[in-house]
Design a protein that fits this description.
The complex is a heterotrimer.
Chain A (H helix, E strand, L loop, with lengths): L1 H16 L8 H17 L17 H24 L7 H20 L3 H19 L6 H32 L4 H10 L4 H18 L7 H8 L2 H26 L4 H24 L4 H17 L9 H30 L10 H4 L1 H15 L5 H14 L1
Chain B lengths: L2 H18 L6 H21 L12 E9 L4 E7 L1 H20 L8 H20 L3 H22 L5 H28 L6 H5 L5 H18 L8 H8 L2 H23 L4 H5 L1 H23 L3 H29 L5 H31 L10 H4 L1 H15 L5 H16 L1 H26 L5 H5 L6 H19 L2 H18 L1
Antiparallel strand pairs in B: 1-2
Helix pairs in contact in B: 1-2, 1-4, 2-3, 2-4, 3-4, 3-10, 3-14, 3-20, 3-21, 4-5, 4-10, 5-6, 5-10, 6-8, 6-9, 8-10, 9-10, 9-13, 10-14, 12-13, 12-18, 13-14, 13-17, 13-18, 14-16, 14-17, 14-20, 14-21, 16-18, 16-20, 17-18, 17-20
Chain C lengths: L1 H21 L5 H25 L7 E11 L2 E9 L1 H24 L6 H20 L3 H19 L6 H32 L4 H7 L8 H17 L8 H4 L5 H10 L4 H8 L1 H4 L3 H22 L5 H21 L3 H28 L12 H4 L1 H15 L5 H16 L1 H26 L7 H6 L5 H16 L16 H6 L14 H28 L12 H7 L4 H47 L6 H22 L1
Antiparallel strand pairs in C: 1-2
Helix pairs in contact in C: 1-2, 1-4, 2-3, 2-4, 3-4, 3-10, 3-15, 3-21, 4-5, 5-6, 6-8, 8-11, 10-15, 11-15, 13-14, 13-19, 14-15, 14-18, 14-19, 15-17, 15-18, 15-21, 17-19, 17-21, 18-19, 19-23
Classes of the chains: A mainly alpha, B mainly alpha, C mainly alpha.
Chain lengths: 387, 496, 631
């Protein structure tokens, strides 16, 4: 919780710093705040916050994922100077929005209660709707924002409906209460329906098929740094939320939702990989790649054990780093060539070799070539699935 | 923990890293220095190698370092007879391959040589790893440098398309192998080789696993009909890339078949799967030879001849395996395979270099446009002839012994197959002599020949070194056979 | 003894290395002299061993080193000295040194002088390995080695593409035979678990007479012999091999390499004697070959081609002898044939030399006055080959005829017919070349001169040998077998008893008389045609009827080309097409398939939010309903 507070304050500060000097210092304040937050994330939570345990608890998993997200966001902030050098104005707003969204993610890491889940989702999503449309001069950006908002609202609707059904059957919002109820009443239809609806809503968030259709358009339209943020932090948060919900809350009725999830995964892997093949725009292709990775990550549900969270965390971390790496080159090309079709990448090796190397390694990592983290992650997943 | 082995493995990696960040143009000398150092280490290790260890403890120079107790895999490296031979082959060929590029001006030489050394690292890792997961990792590691070499320094108009095809095809193959290995791992105690051998698998499981793992090797060797990537990739890669691919990389697959396939899935091999492989490889022998006979592109010709020769190697391994399962222990196929692998490595590198030399003189790979070079380049004519004879398997050259033993092992399986496989004797002579005749003999184009010179000292030293190996090993092959016999006995015995 | 054996084998190898590495810078006399000397030295050493070797001495095996061990069979690099190998080595080194000497003169104007002698020495080395090896693998090494040298020497003048093609053809055809030999060796190894002659001989008794195993082995070995010794169907390489310099034709394609097949069969007598069916096959092929080749030789215009077909035909005779079980007779004919055929080829070389390179007999004539030494020696050779007593050729041929008569009078008749054809083409050659009027150009006439001493001395030596060579194995009826020296000498070689045919003295005399009379008649008939009536040979295209068949070599080359070479080329092209048009697309298809489905799927993603939302709702709806129904 202390981390949450630190980040929130940082976000506010960054927002207000926009008043001074056109927000030139916004980024540095943000970085500073993130570092402080990172420091706090290593400390155990204050006793004071224990009373809010029913809503939010900064447990071990929460700490792990918080650290991961903050580090990734730090990278993005470092990158931000380069990415936004053309946009002189409104920078502070973007950085603060990112920090707000991050807060939302942190809420999701420690939620104990369906209400908190909902709050976290919203805090995460709403800034993103705005950030997606940050390129005011680009029509695609506006389109992305609109689409994201509309479909996000739709998904939230389902989420709430699901929450309602669950509450109706269990009588409580508490995750562990739901857990106990599910174990004792595995045949409760309302509970099952509710769980499916919630699953679908969260699947939207992490872009599993058939709820992924917003990803290509939104990823392509948003400013590249925001896309990177979506592909990394949002995925991390969304997945953890999903993971916690299904494995703790709905553990007892696993038999009901696991098959549906399986179908989603298969659809995701097939569709995303196949469509990724035929893309000509790098950003769009990365969107599909992101979708397919969601499919892989979701495989973790099929081999659960004590180490699952670590595996999940490691894979998400590795994947986020790779994403950042790829997006660096993407952003660079965008600045020079003003577009992100594949053709625009030609000759990157010659002009900026180090950049090319970094991007290549990142892509290899995403492909899962050994000696990269991506491989280890994929390997770990494989083992789980075998079991 | 063997420091020697450790150094052997890491030296190329260090060299590679160094060269990646190197600034000026002396990278080729540095690379050569590293390669020679490697060669010395390897020969030193050979000198201390015990040729007749007790069969049950065939490993020497071990490193064992567990890195994950959760995934039961460890950094386990070691050398026995088979790996020693492959290590020597690698460390002989890499300096020669580096040397072969000395006369050219490569673009981005630092990266080029760094990649070659990285490749050496991967190859040595494959040959010395005693852990299934480690084997797979190094197998994939070798894919990266060759992808870059072929993709960046290959023939301008074709390289991207064919390198992608090569990469994807090989990668898919390796994935199947990974799945197979993981399955076996699940039935055994750990990834360590000895544990994998002891995995309990019934016949059906073994059959499926066999095809999964074999698919990776089938693509790499290649075995008909999984070879379609090979001619294009060999042809459009730069010469050094083709040398690495055909000279050493495919030996990884031969090694893999012996090390990982035979002892793990013996029941499958004894059944129909082994016979199918033999049939496919014999088809490959004839198919490759037929196409080589009508090829007009020098590198393509060599590629198809490689397909043909590798077919015999695989046929021999499996013929002995099948006979072992059905009648009694016989491992001559493995012996022949090892001898021929070594010989083929040397010969094919020599052939590709000769093709390169021809290309530099005639500015084309079309052999119909060449001719008469023997008149102006007698030294080259002799060395080319020696290497060619080695490739054709004329007795007293290195190619003969391996061919002899392999055909003998196929004969033990089925004499008709031996006759079919033996067609390589006739066909190989046909296409090789045609190759030599069209490029070296005849009148040739007077205008072109007037300005052509004989081979330079660099070219001479590479070719002469190879030629020495061709003849020396042809006259006295016993050391190689002795080196590998113990490990092979162990492997074929593990089948029973 | 050991060191002597090593010397025999290594001297030619040393000559090869010295001339090969340094010959370019050494004077011609040195190069030629060294090459000749090493071969002659080997001859001398062999003779000394021979003199000390008794006819009933046991074979001596000299093991040089352990070569390799495969699956229980240990192969040693070793040499076997026995009566058979000594005989062969003496022929090889003796005639070899004569031909080396001759070549010093013949090749003196050639730029590749040192290369020629390098290859010749290498050839001698390989041939010695072949006959001295103590096991089948060493034989095989020599076998392939001589094939290689044959290739190098046939294509010696490599700027001519046709010569290169002829060289390749020889090598490849040989290799077909080599495959058979190799399979035979594998079969022996599989059955007996050893491949050295002594062990195989010891264990040969385990084979039942005419069992499928022994037939398989012997037929495979014979296929090897067919390739190397140019029997039907693998003989067309030999006439083409005439592209090489004449000394090569003399040494390799007359006296030594081509007899390797005969040597192989005799060496493996302990196998062949157990397979009568195979022996019949050998007999059959021998007869067919001798007839076909002799027929073709009747109307050839190139002097060397006539001799080439003659060689094929004479080899056929040797195999007839083997097929009839008369191993010694076969070896006898090997020896006498080496004498007179080498003589004839060297003589032809001398003629060509005198004719400034002309080889077509239509443009020769009347040469006997101009090049007398060549003429007289050539005449002796001709008389020997046609079988005029008491020359060597007659003695060995008569022995063959006698043995074959004992087997079957019909076959004897065919063989006799073949001998008649031999006489016809040889006398034709003799008369066209040396008699009548000169039909060449003025330029050539001007240059006609006898060859230098280096060339004529070997001719004379060989002529002498052709005359007296027969005396080492005179027919039984002379001296009651006392003069059958060769038969006694080779007796220990044979493991299984050979039944010598019972021929009445009277029958033998009659057969002999018939043969001789026939030859004399032919002599006068042919003389009448070509000398008295002055008939000349026609250009190839002008022949009709049976002459056309003969001149055009029975169209066998064309048949082979159509039935074998072209189909292989077509197969290669078909395979290449299959690769490109079928296999490649399948692989690409898999890759493309993914792409196509991607494109299809793309259409779903059309950018309409309503679309997306609709799909989401549908998905949820379906899931819920399905779930509901399943409960």
């Amino acid at each position: 919780m202390s981390v949450l507070i630190v980040l929130f304050l940082t976000a506010v500060l960054v927002l207000f710093s926009g008043v001074f000097e056109k927000g030139k210092y916004a980024r540095y304040i943000g970085i500073l705040g993130l570092i402080v937050g990172l420091y706090f994330s290593f400390l155990p939570d204050c006793e004071f916050f224990a009373q809010y345990k029913a809503m939010y608890e900064y447990g071990y998993n929460a700490a792990l994922f918080t650290k991961i997200s903050i580090v990734v966001t730090l990278f993005l902030f470092f990158l931000g100077g380069f990415a936004f050098s053309n946009h002189r104005s409104h920078q502070s707003e973007l950085y603060s929005l990112m920090l707000f969204a991050l807060c939302g993610g942190i809420v999701l890491f420690g939620y104990q209660n369906l209400v908190t889940l909902f709050i976290g989702i919203e805090i995460l999503s709403i800034p993103l709707y705005v950030m997606a449309g940050a390129n005011k001069t680009d029509l695609r950006s506006t389109e992305a924002s609109m689409k994201y908002f509309l479909m996000g609202a739709f998904a939230t609707g389902f989420l709430l409906f699901g929450v309602a059904l669950v509450y109706g059957s269990v009588g409580s919002f508490d995750l562990y209460a739901i857990h106990d109820f599910a174990i004792n009443n595995p045949k409760n239809l309302m509970l099952i329906m509710g769980s499916i609806l919630m699953l679908s809503a969260l699947a939207f968030k992490v872009s599993l098929a058939p709820f992924h259709m917003w990803s290509p358009d939104v990823y392509q339209g948003s400013p590249s740094l925001i896309t990177a943020f979506m592909a990394s932090v949002v995925k991390i948060s969304g997945f953890f939320a999903l993971f916690k919900l299904m494995t703790i809350g709905f553990n007892g009725i696993a038999g009901d939702w696991i098959n549906i999830l399986g179908v989603f995964i298969i659809l995701t892997l097939l569709l995303a990989n196949v469509m990724g093949l035929v893309q000509t725009n790098a950003k769009r292709m990365l969107a599909y790649s992101s979708v397919s990775h969601a499919g892989y990550i979701a495989l973790i549900f099929f081999g659960l054990n004590n180490f699952s969270t670590y595996i999940l965390g490691f894979y998400l971390f590795a994947y986020s780093l790779a994403t950042v790496g790829v997006f660096i080159s993407l952003i660079w090309v965008e600045k020079i060539k003003k577009e992100t079709s594949f053709a625009a990448f030609n000759g990157l090796g010659k002009r900026e070799p180090l950049l090319a190397v970094v991007s290549t390694i990142s892509m290899l990592s995403m492909a899962g070539i050994p000696l990269t983290a991506g491989f280890i992650g994929k390997l770990g997943l494989q083992f789980w699935v075998r079991h | 923990m063997s420091c020697l082995l450790f150094t052997l493995l890491l030296l190329p990696l260090v060299g590679s890293g160094l060269l990646f960040f190197w600034k000026n143009n002396s990278s080729k000398y540095i690379a050569l220095a590293f390669a020679f150092a490697e060669m010395f280490i390897a020969f030193y290790m050979l000198g201390n190698f015990d040729f007749h260890p007790t069969v049950d403890a065939p490993l020497q120079y071990e490193i064992a370092y567990p890195w994950s107790s959760y995934i039961k895999s460890s950094f386990n490296f070691g050398i026995d007879g088979m790996s020693m031979l492959m290590v020597i082959l690698t460390n002989i060929l890499v300096p020669l391959i580096i040397l072969s590029s000395f006369n050219e001006k490569k673009a981005y030489p630092n990266s080029f040589y760094a990649l070659i050394l990285l490749m050496q690292f991967g190859l040595l890792g494959v040959f010395t790893s005693l852990d299934g997961l480690l084997f797979y990792i190094f197998w994939e590691v070798t894919l990266i440098p060759i992808w870059f070499i072929a993709g960046l320094w290959g023939q301008e108009d074709k390289r991207i398309k064919f390198t992608t095809k090569f990469f994807v095809y090989t990668f898919v193959g390796s994935l199947f192998m990974l799945i197979g290995l993981i399955y076996v791992y699940n039935q055994s105690a750990s990834f360590a080789l000895t544990d994998l051998y002891n995995a309990t698998l019934n016949t059906n499981e073994q059959t499926v696993i066999f095809w999964f793992i074999f698919f990776a090797f089938a693509v790499k060797l290649p075995v008909f009909p999984f070879h379609t990537w090979q001619p294009d990739t060999y042809t459009y890669s730069p010469t050094q890339g083709s040398m690495l691919l055909s000279g050493i990389m495919l030996k990884m697959a031969v090694y893999g078949v012996l090390r990982y396939l035979l002892p793990i899935t013996p029941l499958a091999i004894g059944g129909i799967s082994g016979e199918i492989v033999i049939i496919l490889s014999v088809i490959g022998i004839i198919y490759g030879a037929l196409i080589a006979m009508i090829s007009t592109d020098s590198k393509r010709l060599i590629a198809f001849s490689s397909l043909s020769h590798v077919g015999l190697i695989v046929a021999g391994i499996f013929a002995s395996a099948v006979v072992t399962m059905r009648t009694g222990l016989t491992f001559e196929g493995g012996q022949g395979a090892m001898v021929q692998s070594f010989a083929h490595g040397i010969n094919v590198v020599g052939l590709f270099y000769c093709a390169d030399i021809l290309y530099k003189r005639f500015k084309t790979r079309d052999i119909r446009k060449m001719g008469g070079l023997a008149k102006v380049a007698p030294k080259f004519a002799i060395l080319f002839m020696i290497i060619l004879l080695g490739a054709t398997g004329v007795p007293l050259t290195n190619g003969f012994i391996g061919e002899f033993i392999l055909l003998k092992s196929v004969f033990a399986y089925n004499y008709i197959m031996a006759v079919l496989a033996g067609l390589t004797l006739i066909l190989c002579a046909a296409y090789m002599l045609r190759f030599y005749g069209k490029t070296m003999f005849g009148k040739g184009d007077e205008a072109v020949l007037a300005t052509t010179k004989d081979i330079s000292s660099v070219e001479f030293s590479v070719l002469a070194s190879l030629a020495v190996f061709v003849i020396a090993l042809g006259v006295y092959p016993q050391p190689i056979i002795e080196m590998v016999s113990n490990s092979l006995v162990f492997i074929y015995k593990s089948m029973l | 003894m050991e060191n002597l054996v090593y010397a025999i084998v290594l001297l030619p190898l040393a000559g090869f290395l010295i001339n090969g590495l340094f010959g370019k810078n050494l004077p011609k006399a040195f190069v030629g002299g060294l090459a000749t000397l090493v071969v002659f030295a080997s001859f001398v050493i062999t003779t000394s061993i021979f003199l000390g070797f008794k006819s009933d001495s046991a074979p001596v095996v000299v093991k040089a080193f352990e070569w390799f061990r495969v699956n229980g069979i240990q192969v040693n690099f070793g040499f076997q000295i026995d009566q058979l190998s000594l005989m062969m080595v003496m022929i090889i080194t003796g005639i070899g040194s004569l031909i080396h000497l001759y070549s010093i003169g013949y090749m003196s104007h050639d730029k590749g002088f040192y290369k020629f002698f390098t290859y010749l020495n290498l050839f001698i080395f390989s041939m010695l390995l072949l006959v001295l090896g103590s096991n089948y693998l060493i034989l095989f090494i020599g076998w392939e080695g001589v094939g290689l040298c044959s290739y190098l020497l046939i294509g010696f003048w490599y700027t001519n593409e046709d010569y290169g093609k002829a060289a390749r053809k020889a090598f490849i055809m040989n290799r077909i035979g080599d495959l058979g030999l190799l399979i035979g060796i594998f079969a022996i190894a599989a059955q007996v678990n050893a491949i050295d002659y002594l062990s195989v001989a010891e264990n040969s008794s385990k084979f039942a007479l005419d069992s499928s195993a022994i037939i398989f082995i012997t037929v495979s070995l014979f296929i090897g012999a067919v390739g190397k010794s140019a029997q039907i169907p693998l003989f067309t390489w030999l006439p083409d091999a005439m592209a090489g310099p004449t000394p090569v034709s003399a040494l390799i394609h007359a006296a030594t390499m081509v007899t390797a097949g005969v040597y192989l069969v005799v060496r493996s007598n302990f196998l062949f004697s157990l397979a009568p069916s195979t022996l019949n096959l050998i007999l059959f092929i021998g007869i067919a070959t001798s007839l076909v080749a002799a027929f073709i030789g009747l109307r050839q215009n190139d002097i060397k081609k006539v001799l080439a077909y003659s060689t094929v035909s004479q080899l056929g005779f040797m195999f007839i002898a083997l097929g009839a079980g008369a191993y010694t007779t076969g070896m006898f004919h090997v020896m006498t044939h080496a004498f007179f055929k080498a003589l004839l080829f060297l003589g032809a070389g001398s003629v060509i030399h005198a004719m400034s390179g002309e080889q077509d007999m239509r443009f020769m004539g009347g040469l006997r006055k101009k090049i007398p030494v060549t003429y007289w020696t050539f005449l002796i050779g001709t008389l020997a080959i046609t079988g005029i007593p008491p020359l060597s050729g007659m003695v060995s041929k008569d022995e063959i005829l006698t043995h074959i008569y004992a087997k079957s009078p019909l076959l004897w008749g065919l063989t006799l017919f073949s001998a008649a054809l031999t006489a016809i083409y040889m006398f034709r050659l003799l008369f066209l070349t040396f008699f009548g009027e000169f039909r060449g150009t003025e330029e050539q006439k001007h240059h006609l001169h006898e060859s230098p001493a280096v060339m004529t001395i070997p001719l004379i030596v060989l002529a002498i040998l052709s005359v007296v060579g027969g005396f080492i194995n005179l027919p039984h009826f002379i001296g009651h077998g006392h003069f059958q020296k060769l038969a006694h000498w080779l007796e220990p070689i044979y493991v299984y008893d050979i039944e010598t045919p019972e021929i009445l003295f009277a029958t033998e005399m009659i057969l002999l008389a018939v043969t001789v009379i026939m030859v004399l008649v032919i002599f006068f008939a042919v003389k009448a045609i070509y000398v008295t009536k002055k008939k000349n040979a026609l250009p190839e295209e002008s022949y009709t009827g049976w002459e056309k068949l003969s001149a055009r070599k029975l169209f066998i080359d064309e048949i082979y080309n159509a039935m074998i070479v072209r189909p292989f080329e077509e197969a290669g092209k078909a395979a290449a097409m299959f690769d490109k048009a079928v296999l490649d697309p399948i692989v690409n298809f898999i890759g493309l398939g993914a792409q196509d489905s991607g494109r299809a799927a793309k259409r779903l993603q059309n950018g309409n939010v309503e679309n997306y939302v609709l799909i989401m709702s549908l998905a949820i709806g379906i899931v819920l309903i399905v779930n509901f129904l399943l409960k």
